[in-house]
Structure formats: C-alpha cells, structure tokens
Amino acid sequence: MKRYLMRYALQFIPVLLIISLIVFVLVYMAGDPVALMLPDSATPAEIATLRESLGLNRPFLVQFWIFLTHICSGDFGMSFRYHADAMSVVLSRLPASVELGMLAMAFALAVSIPLGIWSAIRRNSSLDVLITGASVAGKAMPTFWLGLMLILIFAVKFRVFPVSGSGGLSHMILPAITLGGGAAAEIARLVRSNMIETLGQDYIRTARSKGLGDFDIIFRHAFKNCLNPVITMVTVQLPFLIGGSLITETVFAYPGVGQLLVQAVNARDMSVVEAGVFLIALIVIFMNMVGDVLYRLVDHRIKY
C-alpha cells in the first residue's frame, strides 16, 4: 500500500502540470486584467507600469514559468478585489462548501441507496418504474430550476426554510437537496443496475437454497459486492459537490467556493480563479486516491 501511495503521489506531478497549463491558458485568453484594476482615467504610462509590475509584458512561456514557480510555493498572487492573498480568500470559503457538499452527499446516499435496492428487488413492478422514471427525471432536471422551485415552495410560500445565505443547518437544507438531487438520481440507477446483476449470480441462488433470509442475502451478500461502484461514484461526485457547486451557491447566495469563483470570473479577478480551480483539482485528485484506498478496505481481493 505504501508503495502504491508513493507511486500515486508521483503521478500528481504531470497531472498538476497539465492542470496548471490549462488554467493559465484560459486566464491568459480571458483578457487584460489591468483594464479592470485601473480607472478609466489611467494614463498609458500608468498602464505600462502596472503591466510591467505584474509581468504581463513578458512572453507567454516566461509568464507561465513564473506562474509555475509561484504556485509551487502556494503563491497565486493578490486578489485585487479583496486585497488579500488569493489562496487565502479561497480557503476562507472552503469550510462552507465542504459542509454543504458533505450534507448534499449524505442526502444523496440516504435517498439513493434504499431506493436503488428497493427498485432492484421489485424489478419490473410499478414501484420500479416509478423510481427509475424519477431517477431519469432527477438527472435531467436543471439544477437552477430545481433550486428556484424549492425556494418558491419551501422558502417563499410555506416559509419553512430561509431563502438564501448561511448561518446554520436550516440555510443548508435547500441547497443540499438541490446539489444532491442529481447525485442521488445517478447513484440510485447505479445501485439498481448492480443489485439486479448481483442478485442473479449463482452464489445468491446458493444462499437462498441454504435458507438465508432476504435481509442477509440483500445486505450481507448482494449489496456488499455492489459497494465498489458506489464508492467510485461517491469519490467522483463529492469533489464537484464541494468545489463545483457554482450554480447552486449562486442561486441560494451561499458563501462558498462556487459563488466566489462566479464572482471572481465576473470581476476578472484571475488570481482567485486560478487558486480556486487549482484547489478543486487537488481535491479531485485526493478523493480519487481515497477511493482507491477504500476499494482495498471493502474488497480484500484487490491488491496494489
């Protein structure tokens, strides 16, 4: 396991280099940030001075090399909008996004796993058709539309939950349902298909012939062998629930990383954009490694 983790850590380097290049190219193509940092009355001399101080007058490859050397030390520059270190600004929003992402994933698992199992053991029944149809609709439903409907029903009409902002669990319920709805639909379909396949295996029929009850067959044998695909889905979805919830956080005015990135893009605060995207990439890579470790814990047949 230690050798595998060391090898996996070494694989970070080329991945992060590629991510760094993509982020830098996108920011480079977004336009000149100096135009937003200075007032309209700035003279050409002031513009040239600022461009030189930021290194924007240098060739592309030189700028990219400077960018790489800075991010190796965690320096993404200063945010001209917040007048603070860009990574510090992003990290200050990370706890709120982690809380929301974890709650959204907890909701998704609590809903999807029972429904997926129930749909599999009642295959081709009216209940199965209903759950499958709801899963397809949930996956296809636009996130912003679901969020707006939840706000209109539960925040405006019935006044059960706050409309927006943060400040406690009540502020997170509607964003978590909105954010976790798509993941719940996808996981439910995954659990159903894998459970149907597993329940048709010979060892399940053998267990039934030995007189094992439905509960033991479903949860101690069938579902246990379906965990690996679920772990894969969770480790893939969780980083995007934490860092990629741009639409949800914007709709609910939730002060997380997603809302910060939207505001930074609109303001062309590229230091914050670079720091946010890079942090999300690190979370994705880390969660993939966690998923591989969990595979080994769940299924001892897997060797690294």
Automatic annotation (TrEMBL):
<dbReference type="GO" id="GO:0005886">
    <property type="term" value="C:plasma membrane"/>
</dbReference>
<dbReference type="InterPro" id="IPR045621">
    <property type="entry name" value="BPD_transp_1_N"/>
</dbReference>
<keyword id="KW-1133">Transmembrane helix</keyword>
<feature type="domain" description="ABC transmembrane type-1">
    <location>
        <begin position="94"/>
        <end position="291"/>
    </location>
</feature>
<feature type="transmembrane region" description="Helical">
    <location>
        <begin position="100"/>
        <end position="121"/>
    </location>
</feature>
<keyword id="KW-0472">Membrane</keyword>
<dbReference type="Pfam" id="PF19300">
    <property type="entry name" value="BPD_transp_1_N"/>
</dbReference>
<feature type="transmembrane region" description="Helical">
    <location>
        <begin position="12"/>
        <end position="31"/>
    </location>
</feature>
<protein>
    <submittedName>
        <fullName>ABC transporter permease</fullName>
    </submittedName>
</protein>
<dbReference type="GO" id="GO:0055085">
    <property type="term" value="P:transmembrane transport"/>
</dbReference>
<keyword id="KW-0812">Transmembrane</keyword>
<keyword id="KW-1003">Cell membrane</keyword>
<dbReference type="Pfam" id="PF00528">
    <property type="entry name" value="BPD_transp_1"/>
</dbReference>
<feature type="transmembrane region" description="Helical">
    <location>
        <begin position="141"/>
        <end position="160"/>
    </location>
</feature>
<dbReference type="InterPro" id="IPR000515">
    <property type="entry name" value="MetI-like"/>
</dbReference>
<keyword id="KW-0813">Transport</keyword>
<feature type="transmembrane region" description="Helical">
    <location>
        <begin position="230"/>
        <end position="255"/>
    </location>
</feature>
<feature type="transmembrane region" description="Helical">
    <location>
        <begin position="275"/>
        <end position="295"/>
    </location>
</feature>
<comment type="similarity">
    <text>Belongs to the binding-protein-dependent transport system permease family.</text>
</comment>
<dbReference type="InterPro" id="IPR035906">
    <property type="entry name" value="MetI-like_sf"/>
</dbReference>
